[in-house]
Amino acid sequence: MPDNQGARMTDGRTTGAARAFELLEPLVQAATVRVHAPPGGYDNPRSHRTGPTWGSGFFIAPGWVLTCAHVVGEGGAAVRLTGREVGITFSAGSVTGTVTGRVECVLPERLEERRPGRHALWDLPDLALIRVLAPVSHACVWITDRSRPRFDEVAYFGCTEDLGIPEITGRTTRLRGTAGNGAAIRLGDDDEIEPGMSGGPVVDLARGEVVGVLKARRQTGGGGLAVSVVQLRTLPMAARGQAGLYRRIMQAHDLHHYDQHLSDLDNRRTWTDVHGELPPEEGDPYAGRGRLTPGERTTLYGLLAELPPPGSSEVVRALVEEVRGEEPDPQPPAPLSWRDGLGLLHDPPGGTGEAAAMLRYATDVSVAEYREPAAPGADEELWDWVRATAERLWRPLRRELGERRERGLAERERRRRASAGRSVHGPARRAGGLPSGASVLLEVWAHGWEDVYDWRVSVLAGPAHAGRVTPVDSGVRATLAGLPEALRVPLAEGFRRCDTHEAAALLEVAVAPELFGLAVDAWVVVGGVPLGVQRPVVLRHPAGTAGPNPGGAREHPADREGGDAAARWARVQAGPLQDERADCAGGRPRSPATEWLTGLPDNTVPVHCRAADQEPTLGSLHAVRDAGYGVAVTRRPPPEPGASCAPFHRGLREELADAGRAEVLPLRFQTLRGRAYGADPDAYWATGAGLVWEDPARPLPEDEPLQGDL
């Protein structure tokens, strides 16, 4: 006879799922809302009635509602979505209230300019965040921390009108797979998804956490799609020095549940209470042992939320890798908060306990570098909790974690001395140079003799892990005109992984010299501002233009030219700089002789002012690299063929003289692009200028992507 966990109910649910639904339903219903026109708004002026239902949504943090972008666009396709006011009706106990909310942002951002027609699917992730414009007391759901959903039984909730009255109801089904590169979740056809339910939450019944947002039902009825809540990590990144909307919301989410868990003022069951009552997961290898209890998990999330967020996504990934003993799942979106790191530690490899892995991670977080100083005692409070919890699990673990913390404190102090310029390994990086962390690498290859191109986006580790590459995404057979759209999402993901609160990450574009005219710096990925204005962008010669070295990374000219190229790189970095026209003499084209190039001073920066895909410039770019120059300048010629190149050379000479040394050029070129974008006539000469930057500390990968099926 099967046990209760494996038995099936007549409605298709297991008995465990049926019990979980019974426990979770009141909590989810309390946090789910109806979205409609604002009271007295444009759909029903001079009226306090709410009007027809546009869709559903749910509170994810105090004052914040998550729904679908197509829900807030209902009935107002010609109106800008961001900033639009909507009505939110929700239940607080036995009382129903209606408040006004304002759409803070939509995903993807391009929905503001390009929306599908009526009854057509909106682009993924099709999400909208609504800020409630009045302080109200309400419930919030519990959001998953996992990067990938588990394909188990789920419940979905939203607004229906089965009896002619709008009400929040729930149905059950199973997850059947993913779509849209993991951005969407496929729902089974166990029950019907009604139109007003769009934007409602999808809840994993085994773990009691929201994993998705209802998006669409199949036209034939039964089943549909939901958007993974992990897509919230794709919210626009913050300006330098700001925490960012995603981190702020998830911090508020975790502190809300932490405060509820600790409060003695309310005896209603919390999400943490219900998590402790859920039936054990079928097939759980730990059978509940070796995991944190729900109360411990809520407390850990709250203590992490009390700390300033990490400086970058790579900080989180590095700590997770240290604990797991292997690189974490590279599947996007990138982890942005300390809680996201915990989500990568479920079911760690090697049979080690999940709780022990999370405590090791929390120990490392307690001694990590934060984006700003922590509140007094916040890191110590986290450590005290870790030590007490470790003793409950396994007392010897407390000693291991204590030693781990001591090593971390010593390393943090060493880093602080180094950042102050007192490092035993040498002076700190000089002001104005590139950050030493990870960069985003874009590689583009011509697809044989056809006018289409293969591409790959990766994260290139900094000098501390030279040659280490983490893939983000790749594609084949894109046209030059189609590259910006094909690369928009992969590049945005790469930037999320590499940007820090102090600086935007470097974008390295590795292409053949004939593609040095590719206007990557002018592409718009996020924020409506060209890439070259948002961050430093440099050009690299691609892998394969020199022979492979034993380490598997692309050989740098410094490795082939004895000490000449290495000396040239070091000399030009230190400056002063001397410009030299490589493909031009007095406005006339010329091909530089190899002997002339090799005889120039080491602090020379060769300058090209003509089309990179035409001679003599194409041959000159190859010759300059072969001569061991790691820094050079190129340009996309202006639209007017007869325009003089003299202003370009004159402006560049002044810029190089003012810069003094090459190490500051990537950031100075970014500033120049910003000035030109901001309509500064004194910077117009720099439009289309590109910087070739062959940094030997950042070797490129050797292999090229596959070119599709034969």
Question: In words, what does this structure look like?
Answer:
By secondary structure, this protein is an alpha+beta fold. The strands form six sheets. A six-stranded antiparallel β-barrel has the order 1-2-3-6-5-4. Strands 7-8-9-12-11-10 form a six-stranded antiparallel β-barrel. Strands 15-14-13-16-17 form a five-stranded mixed β-sheet.
Give the topology, please.
Layout: H1 15-31, E1 32-36, E2 53-61, E3 64-67, H2 69-72, E4 85-92, E5 95-107, E6 127-132, E7 153-160, E8 167-179, E9 184-187, E10 201-204, E11 209-217, E12 224-228, H3 245-262, H4 271-277, H5 294-305, H6 313-324, H7 338-343, H8 354-366, H9 378-393, H10 395-419, E13 439-446, E14 453-460, E15 469-478, H11 483-498, E16 507-510, H12 531-534, E17 537-540, H13 557-560, H14 564-574, E18 578-581, E19 584-585, E20 588-589, H15 594-598, E21 604-607, H16 617-626, E22 631-635, H17 646-659, H18 665-677, E23 689-693
Helix pairs in contact: 3-5, 5-9, 6-8, 8-9, 8-10, 9-10
